[in-house]
Amino acid sequence: MSFKGFAHLEEIVQTSSEVASLNFSTNDARVTALLKPSASRRVIREAAPHERKLFTLVEELGTTSREELEQPTPLRGPEPVTVDKILRAANVLAQICNLQDAKEQIEFLAQRHEEITSSIDSLESIMEKQKINLEKCKIAERAKNLDQVNRGGEASSSGNQMSKIEEEIWHHEKEILALEMIKKEYIKKVNSLDEELSEQKHLEEEEIKLNHRLGMMVLNDDDNFDDIDDSDDIIASHELAERLQLLEFKKEILAELDTQLEELEEISSRQMYTGDFGHLKFKFQNISKKADMETNEAQAEGNHVIKVINNTLIDYVASTLEQSDIDSNAPIPVPSQQAIIAAIILQIFRNVGGELFLADLKSRIGQVIREKGWQENEGIKALYLLVANKLVSIDRSQMACPVKAEL
Fold first, then answer.
1. Which of 9, 289, 292, 307 has a CA that sits 20 to 30 A from residue 365's CA?
2. Closest CA to 90 of 68, 113, 72, 71
């Protein structure tokens, strides 16, 4: 053995000799207290996982602690606690404690539990049926949406065509405005030439008068008169000749402007009535009218469908008068008593044309309520339920208080 092993052996021998030398014959209170089993020490033990949970915050619990808490405990078995187990345990406790009132309450609770369980089972079966109906409705809605998408594609193509036509119309209108501006300028030039022509006519009249005077002077052979006025007449004749030449030139310009103006009017009228613009405008108007007609037809068809659905729903609810007629397996929820009375009131309005005095309406409602054996105040409640939902309106401003319904 090594040196280190001898040292350990010597230490063990020395300790054992010290223990053997102890004297236990004398009553040492301190030693007795240490060796005596205490009651407080007997109750100290390791805490169970479900007990440690009482002194631990939720944030401090890790994954292991949560898993330990889910494990079964002495008070909780591996199976989950159910109502049947609780009722059996309550019966056992009632037999041990001999509590008669508790036993009756336990039996009542057990009966109530059976009723609720059967009701839940029936409601779950109804829910399964409604899920199947909902899936059918979703499939029909998807098919309808696909049809609408296809129609929307056609509408978008027609919309693109309409936008192109509108753009072409805008360009043609712009060209027409430019032609109208040119036409106005030509009209101004024609008016100025007309003024100049009127002046030339005035000069022609003066020339005719002057020629007449010259003829008269030649016939009279008055030399003195000729000597005096000859120079003036020659000058006037030259001026008249120049003015006549200018007049002929302006007439030619006026004729050219007239021809250009006529051509311009023909071009504008052709584009407005017989050209591409007229064709495009006519086509655009036809497309717009067709779109408006389709929209109006779709709206009228939708209103008719809504009216038929409302009448069918009113007749269905109003016909559900007896509890024996109610089908618990039907996908539509069972209407309440007020809903049935409200449907009967709407049927009354539909039969009389949508308007009735308040007193007459109350008497008719009371007659129906008495025939069915219901309370009379239920009819008034149903009437004001329709008023609150804005299906019926009461005009308090008039003496007879007419009641109207929009059906």
1. 307
2. 113
When pLDDT is cut at 50, 70 and 90, the band that residue 56 belongs to is: low
pLDDT of residue 379: 77
pTM exceeds 0.90, yes or no: no
Question: What is the pLDDT of the chain when averaged over all its residues?
Answer: 70
Please, are residues 400 and 358 in contact by the beta-carbon 8 Å criterion? yes
Strand partners of residue 266: none
Give the SS3 label for residue 2: coil
Q: In what order do the strands lie in the sheet with 355-357?
A: 355-357, 402-405, 392-394
**For 304-405, CATH number?**
1.10.10.10
Q: For residue 37, is it left (φ>0), alpha (ψ between -120 and 50) or beta?
A: beta
Is the model more confident about 387 or about 1?
A: 387
- Look at 230 and 264; give whichever has higher pLDDT: 264
The residue with greater pLDDT, 30 or 306, is 30
- Residue 208: predicted pLDDT: 78
d(CA 161, CA 148): 20
Structure tokens that stand for 43 in this block? 């109750």
